[in-house]
Amino acid sequence: MTDTGNQSGEEAGGKPETPQQSDLDYKINQLFGGSVVRKDLVKAVKGNAIVPTYVLEYLLGQYAASDDEATIQAGIDAVRKILADHYVHRNESELVKSTIRERGRHRIIDKVAVTLNDKQDVYQASFANLGLSGVLVEPAVVKANPKLLVGGVWCICDIEYFHSDDARVVPWILGSLKPIQMSSFDYEGYLEARKSFNTGEWIDVLIQSIGFNPEMFGRRAKLLQLVRLIPFVERNYNLVELGPKGTGKSHIYSEFSPHGMLISGGEVTVPKLFVNNANGRIGLVGYWDVVAFDEFAGKKKRSDKALVDIMKNYMANKSFSRGVETLGAEASMVFVGNTSHTVPYMLKHSDLFDELPEAYHDSAFLDRLHFYIPGWEVDTIRSEMFSSGYGFVVDYIAEVLRSMRNFDYSDRYQHHFALGSDISTRDRDGIHKTFSGLMKLIYPDGEATSDEIEELLRFAIEGRKRIKDQILWIDSTMASVDFGYSDAVGTWCGVTTLEEDEYPDYYRARRPEAEGEAEMSVGPEPTQERTTVVAPAVPAVVEPLFEGHREFQENQRGVSYEALLMPYLQGAKDITIVDPYIRYPYQGRNLADLLALLAAEKDPADEISVRLVTKEQRGEYEQQHLLMLKEIQDSAATVGIKFSVTWDETAHDRSIRTEHGWRLILGRGLDIFKKGSGSHFDLNTRRQEFRQVLGFGITYIREGGGDHTA
After folding, report:
1. Higher-confidence residue: 547 or 268?
2. What CA–CA distance (Å, rounded) separates 191 from 207?
């Protein structure tokens, strides 16, 4: 069962590089010894094992929860051996079955799910990787671990083999089963140790526990990461996060805790989520602390109206019906999905919920959400963002958070601040639950200064305001709200969202009160006699754009894409660039410079398409070429440019063509500048005008249609 796939030297058994231990790491180990682990060790032991992070950290917590390098290395070796000997790879399932048969008993690590065979009145287990089913399970085991019935649980199991002449008897026997999660912890010790950290340090501890390097995040970015944890610490918390791909939206719900369940948005059904009325079996919300819906966005996705109605009732009332019986549950709901447009585009043309399926793009459903994480603010995950420092073993912090679901800190701000009087009950619920969750995470003893409380209160209000503002655009019958709070002396503090501050024109244009003001201003002005002198209009002199050929000499300065190309590209919505040689980093930078100029010239709320026709790089640098173009594509998408690449091995002549009637023949393509020194401090790298050019020519051809004036 030993892994034989491609591995790095570290994963194949080499010693992982030992990072420099920070003062924070030292403090964590001193105060939480045995409950923390170095976060880069998961990568060192995972190999080809397809298991959640919390499973690996559970094992590392048993053997490598130390800051002693010898102990860590011995622990890594022990975990690797356990995985090699006991983790079941699907392609080796028959070998494992043979091992069980030959030995009579063997320990495995696998995901186990249990169903009730009501015809025989027995519980039967199935093993995801081993491929076994119908294995008998004692009722006491199911009673002690009810999550086995809904979705399955990762476990360490002893499997026995005993063949019978009776073909109806399953030869596989479950000798023992132990779920991979912590059984107990010292909560009072956790609170006491927290007192030794200041607020900034403690937030960094939590960020490292998630697996990220806190040095790569600002304060606001850290709080956004912590909001992702609120569903684990707050009962019946309804969270939505929409944003670009690759920002880690779903990771925390699949990897961070054994108490969370991540399912595809397309797999949601009433029986799976709530109750199967045919047999009365309770669904996921009855057993899991958090149910997260991945890939939830998608306008064209079909939705079950009955499911939406039941979900709305559950999100509002924390209950659902089973026949005539009403049942309560505590599961938090998380909805994550990708956006395909920029924020200004959505604000101008639709709303920030525009990507949701039609059945969920409903004010009644949206009003039940407590916080909207602006996923466009979260950086795309990069390798340097991961932590090599110490953080809590995942199953330890998961149990801490779960225990805090019993507490309510929602009133801790009321000695210092008061919410606005016109904030509705539902708005207050959203603000209160977010504030309570952040208090539990950052100030678990419930004690914080007025400034610390104000920071969390403003953040909680902003997340709920983001939801309510969109609802007001979707449903004009909803009453507008002045979001904010008063301090102890009665001073009013209004709260805005970041995108409201960034794009005020689009926000104001969509406000109901702004529309009302526009309607009121249509009527005639009051009669008033006055003399108005109107100056005669002076027509602007518009110079036609140059047509023809221009030559530039080698070493000439003062040339830039802005002067050379942009007058002809302004206003274009569809641009095709033909350049067979966009291969090397400096050529990619030239392309990125042009895209940046296009983005700066257009309205932030508009989107344009740019297609690059080029040759595919072959051989040694093929992967780097593809990665460079993908990085340019991802970056362009954030500023409203839909960048695509078409491979054409016959491409030769370089040109730029627009849909509004210009074709620019580029003698050297975009590669017109001499290579600079590469220094970050060289001014030539900051402004194209400062750089020397290679000798080149450019021809401007007007093909008809469009505006051809500067």
Report:
1. 547
2. 18
Query: Which two three-digit tokens encode residue 449?
Result: 């200064």
**Three-state DSSP class for 283?**
coil
- The whole-angstrom distance between residue 345's C-alpha and the CA centroid of its chain comes to 20
Edge to edge, the sheet with strand 418-419 lists 418-419, 484-486, 492-494
Q: What angle do CA 211, 81, 176 make, to 5 degrees?
A: 95
Residues 641-676 pLDDT 10s: 999 999 999 888 899 999 999 999 999 999 999 887
Q: Which of 67-71, 75-79, 650-654, 660-664 has the lowest mean pLDDT?
A: 67-71
> Quick count: other Cβ atoms within 10 Å of Cβ 571?
13
Please give the helix or strand (H or E) that residue 508 lies within, else none. helix 504-510
**Rounded-to-integer distance, Cα 56 and Cα 50, Å:** 10
Distance of CA 451 to the CA centre of its chain: 29
Q: Are 549 and 697 contacting, i.e. CB atoms less than 8 angstroms apart?
A: yes
Write the DSSP symbol of residue 524: P
Q: Measuring CA to CA, how many Å separate 539 from each of 389, 535, 536, 546, 706? A: 66, 12, 10, 21, 21
The SS3 of residue 593 is: helix
Question: What is the tens place of the pLDDT at every residue in 382-437?
Answer: 888 999 899 998 888 988 999 999 999 999 999 999 999 989 999 999 999 999 99
Distance between CA atoms of 199 and 183, rounded to whole angstroms?
29
Rg (CA), the chain: 30
* CA distance to 309, 343, 488, 616, 631, per residue, from 625 (Å): 49, 29, 59, 8, 10
pTM confidence score? 0.79
Count CB atoms within 10 A of the CB of residue 163: 9
Counting Cα atoms < 13 Å in the Cβ hemisphere of 287 gives 22
Look up residue 182 and give its DSSP letter: -
CA 352 – CA 333 distance, rounded (Å): 19
Q: Please say whether the beta carbons of 144 and 130 come within 8 A.
A: no
**Which amino acid, one-letter code, is at 257?**
S
At residue 330, the 3 state secondary structure works out as coil
Contact by Cβ (8 Å): 479, 468: no
Residue 665, strand partner residues: 655, 699
Nearest 5°: the CA angle 444, 448, 454 is 115
Please indicate whether residue 597 or residue 297 has the higher confidence score (pLDDT). 597
Query: What sign results for the dihedral spanned by CA atoms 139, 141, 142, 144?
Result: positive
